[in-house]
């Protein structure tokens, strides 16, 4: 049985064919990312900047969950109208056209849906 060859100089020691293994690539990425975070802490204000970013992300996720819970309290018609208008970026006439209903109905759905969301998010 032939003995495995040593990797060529400058090559990854753990390869799959001619490419580095996925495990090795992930390990290299995580090591590089960890080093950059550690170096960021050494900069003046680096730790404060990092903690601010983490706090902002936590708040964003909490708000997102609260909005999802609030949207789940709406009727399907209200939810569809509100999502198209606020997340789809559509004005009332395109929402009415897309749903195939009249403009007054869209306005009523969105108005009542927003009122219900206000109560759910309070």
TrEMBL record:
Keywords: DNA-binding, Sigma factor, Transcription, Transcription regulation
InterPro entries: RNA_pol_sigma70_r4_t2 (IPR013249), RNA_pol_sigma_r3/r4-like (IPR013324), WH-like_DNA-bd_sf (IPR036388)
Pfam families the record matches: Sigma70_r4_2
All residue ranges annotated as the RNA polymerase sigma factor 70 region 4 type domain in the record: 65-117
Keyword DNA-binding: yes
Statement: the UniProt record of this protein carries the keyword DNA-binding: yes
Family statement drawn from the similarity comment of this UniProt entry: Belongs to the sigma-70 factor family. ECF subfamily.
Record's protein name: RNA polymerase sigma factor 70 region 4 type 2 domain-containing protein
UniProt source species: Nocardia tengchongensis
